[in-house]
Amino acid sequence: MKTKTVPNMAVQLGKLSLKNPVMTASGTFGYGEEYADYVDLNRLGAIVVKGLSLKPRLGNPPPRIMETAGGMLNAIGLQNIGVDAFIEEKLPYLRKYDVAVIANIYGESYAEYQKVAKKLSAAKGVHALEVNVSCPNVKKGGLSFGADPEIAAQVTRKVKEETDLPVIIKLTPNVTDIAAIAVAVEKAGADAVSLINTLTGMSVDLKNRAPYLKNITGGLSGPAIKPVALRMVWQVVKRVSIPVIGIGGIMDAGDALEFLMLGAKAVQVGTANFINPYATTEIIEGMQNYLKNNNLKDINKMIGTFNEGGSS
Amino acid sequence: MAKNIYIGEILKNEGIRENYFLMKVKLPESFDDPKPGQFVMIRIAGLSEPFLGRPISIYSFRRSKSSAEIELLYRIVGKGTQILAGLIAGSQLEIHGPLGGAYAVFPEKENIVFIAGGIGVAPLSLLAQYLCKSVCIEPSRMSFYLGAQTAKEIVGLEKLSSLCYNMQICTDDGSKGRKLFVTQAFAEDIKKYDPVNTAVYACGPKGMLKALAGIIGKSEFHCQVSLEERMACGTGACMGCAVAIKDKSGDVAYRRICSDGPVFNLEEVIWE
Asked: Which of A138, B101, B154, B246 has the fewest CB atoms below 10 angstroms from its CB?
């Protein structure tokens, strides 16, 4: 028998309350308005905006993307309008919606991370910061901040000094032990961790004996990386007590629920937005239907229910 | 809410030349009239490969009482278009569009000049069709320079001949028309056109457009070009389809071909 009441989809990530566990992944949803024609932004758990830096960034020369088996590589190079233009031009638009706005931030030095964090904390309408310590595309910084536990912890401390907003550290998978980084940032005061960012990869043009991407390497995303993301989320949830946000190749409600079962409190949908602009709301509806069909009244009843000892 | 993703049915998908295909797709009547220069993102319904949609410009459009029909003229350039070429009539496609901006039209200009290289003929054909039928530009005012490497790659000629009186065909090897680059053919004729009274539209390989930029240089010709690049989303979110342009202050900036373009003023594009 199916339950008649609408199941509860709200989740709590520390101080951050979300209508449902489905967020957009940074860099795949623009600044929100790019998708407003397709998605009622009010229905989303949170919008994580395109990564913001202190000054506008030009980005990498093209070609910037290439399809690969079950996914894609990108080397956008963090092209963005800069934190000031975001606050002035994009945030007022997002404030019109009843949705949590999470600003993804990026810096090339501790001081830059701090300045960006401070500006966003003073602006009205930002509900949390997600700190990119993992973008693999920019040669300076990027990778190194997130690849070393102590440096990642230091970024966390520095950002926390400048803000009262919840701070989510977005972890890179391009490390030997991602759980060690998660533990380090938790100790440094991170309110949550999100993982995984893209896996560094490359794609070779046999005919021209050349790389397909001008940047040569890029970040791999899409369904191809989901098994890696699941494994890493599984490793991290065992080692930290702060909320974990699962990211990596989520295409449908089933994928999202797999991450929640492992113990993630929320998920981010990224590359799926590119091939289906309705992906986020379809996933929310699909999760609701799953709960109804399984007589579950609350999405929280799914979280962390993974049965390690069982097998199918 | 935009509802511009449709399931279309392939009515016809035929090889018209080696590696060149013409696909006719039936769409619901709610499909918007495409403006010349716009494109659609195509995915094969129900298939996970190719993973990303493929951007293809609209070659022709026809509306009937209860449905719309688009034609797509495309060339096999990689895995995605190879798979598209293998689809049979009756197959279903996810069609997202029409997307992107359109060519600006100038009915008051005396001459309309089109310069197409290879598959670049596709969006310019829709434009010629539009100018002729919707803006009522007389065929005598339209000149079309159509070039390709060889005669085999000259496609779409039949349709254009009925729209433009002045058809100039060029091939690199001389197997059809004049043996020279299409941009050179235009350069030879350039004195026939009053720059202020001529609109130039071009689409083709980067090398061709770069050469055209050199020919037009600092003259007063107004030239619009439509560009292509690999895309992921087609709607401006992924920032994947970047083109370098000179912005208003003269600095280099990257614009998105899908949503800031695909049509750009030739003078603002920076060529490597």
From this structure: B246
The reported pTM is 0.93
- CA of A80: which chain B residue's CA is closest? B239
The shortest C-alpha distance from A125 to chain B (Å) reads: 21
Using one digit for the tens of pLDDT, what is the confidence trace for A94-104?
999 999 999 99
Minimal Cα distance from A74: which residue of B? B240
Q: Is residue B104 part of a domain?
A: no
- pLDDT score, position A137: 41
Interface check for B270 against chain A (CB to CB < 8 A): the answer is no
Per the structure, the complete domain to which residue B137 belongs is given by 111-226
Residue B179 belongs to some domain of the structure: yes
Q: Which pLDDT tens digit goes with each residue over B129-179?
A: 999 888 888 888 899 999 999 999 888 888 888 887 889 899 999 999 999
What's the structural domain count of chain B? 3
Q: Which residues of A are catalytic?
A: 135
Asked if the Cβ–Cβ distance from A61 to B253 is below 8 Å, we say: no
Residue A167: inside a domain, yes or no? yes
Q: Is the ipTM of this complex over 0.85?
A: yes
* Contacts within 8 Å (CB) and 24+ apart, B206-212: B206/B271, B208/B115, B208/B117, B208/B120, B208/B147, B208/B181, B208/B182, B208/B183, B209/B266, B209/B269, B209/B271, B210/B271, B211/B181, B211/B183, B212/B115, B212/B183, B212/B186, B212/B266
Domain count, chain A: 1
Give the count of Cβ contacts less than 8 A between chain A and B: 96
What integer pLDDT is reported at residue A295 of this predicted model?
Answer: 93
Residue A294 falls within a domain, yes or no?
yes
In a domain, B106, yes or no: no
Contact criterion met (CB < 8 Å) for A62 and B51: no
For residue A73, tell me if it sits in a domain.
Answer: no
Q: Tens digit of pLDDT for each residue in B80-91?
A: 999 999 999 999
Q: Which DSSP letter does residue A63 get?
A: P
